[in-house]
Amino acid sequence: MQNQIEKKIIKRMTDLWKHESAAKQSELNSAVAIFQHRLKMIEKFVNTQPKQTRDYYISPYTVVADHDRMHYKIVKHTDDITNYISTIWIKNIKSYE
Amino acid sequence: MNKENKTELKKRMHELNASTNIYTYILESNSTDMKESKLYDVKDNMMIKDIYVTGASSTNLIKSPYNAAVVDLLNAAGYRVVALTNMDELGVGSWSRFAKNGRIVWNEGPQQSPGGSSGGAAVSALKITTISLGTDTGGSCRFPAQICRIHGFKPTFGSFSRFGIYIYDDTDTVGIFSRSVKEIYNAAKILSVYDERDSNSITNNMNSGASSYSIVALNENLYNKEQKEFLNQLKKRFDVVDIDLSINPEFIDAIYEIISAAGFYSNSSRFSIARLNDKNSIEFDSYQDVVDKSLKMFGPNCLSKIMLAEYVMHKSDGVNAYELALSARGDLISNFIRTIDNAKIIIYPVVNLEEYHYIYANLVGIPSLFVSLRRETGIIGLNIMSAHRCENIIFDFAEKIADLIYNQQIDS
User: Fold this and answer.
1) What's the complex ipTM?
2) pTM of the predicted model as reported, rounded to 2 decimal places
3) Nearest C-alpha of chain A: how many angstroms from B258?
4) Out of A2, A55, B59, B63, which residue is the most buried by the measure of CB atoms under 10 Å away?
């Protein structure tokens, strides 16, 4: 993932400066090198941190309205969003609202 | 310096600038009392009325409508501003290499540079002025001081007003350079004033110095032979306590890069070519065209910082680097505050070109003074930190080690 973003960002920088003078191009090369160095540093830091450290305040549940079937579902965030843990049936959404 | 007349002073400044490129603008002061005044200059990101203050960037084309708060305070105290000093574009950089009008050339420093981003202010404080004002986001006032063998100071976050200054990010403060610690202290007292125009300003008055304090050595477990020897010298004179403040320095740079990139990203949004279009008369094809043309106004280092911010603010695989950095910063602050409450002073003896130890004070928001030490001490200088608003303790400690401090006696 990081590699893709890195490539995309470097391409964007290079494209922005492609019509500039040779001197500017050389400055850009050093800026790209700095960027890559910083990115590696950050990536190393991110990879050593426990993932989702701040989930304690983010509710893992979301209420999803399914208008076709006229009900709401409470779903838990997982890789598979269809993993419903509970479903609240509301027969008439309009009257509920 | 005070005995020098105005013409000679300007001549010296122009000569120095011809070989170094340290000034972006030398002011033509009409002041007749210049002989009696203390001279200072400011980094080219602090507003001086009716002057084009550029931040060493092509992005800013506006004549300053007013003085920065710090300029007004020093002027009122009888100081005279003589120049704007060159810097890394908008403060992004450590070696004063990225500036609109070219880099600072300083053959006396490594990499032919006085360090950065406030490199011009450091050279000017060494050669011309009594004090120079810079800004310090991650060591930008203390690192150049180290290279130029003078002293550099960063106060508690919010204690000097940032009104009228192009802020780099949310850890940015105004800083002071001088050859004399005493001059830094005098200026710090003048500048520590609450300013309602700056939303981050804190109530003034530096706390009075503590009658006694003990010292903690930062990252002592990583010290080399020279640093250990220096610490042993200090132990004979001061109460150096054995508190473990070993914070893995490996990730400090990363945390700083993430937080500063995000801060710079939001602050740089003010520099839009669309907003400045009156002067440029540039036409735009689309919104993307506005974005592209605005980005192209930045130099490469700023551009790479903005691009970095796009990465750190972005959530990849459920992970947001900015959130992680904020969390790590929170842990760092608790660790430092707990230690400072017990000991009052934290030191780091500086031996080489490493910069990481300056960043702690910025991330925690505490004051920090770099003092150059005499070569006989075996180390280059000392990074001294204390608790929020406890600047007085730092200066008190510096006074007690005056015999170790390089250039302590030079008073302009």
Assistant:
1) 0.82
2) 0.86
3) 7
4) B59
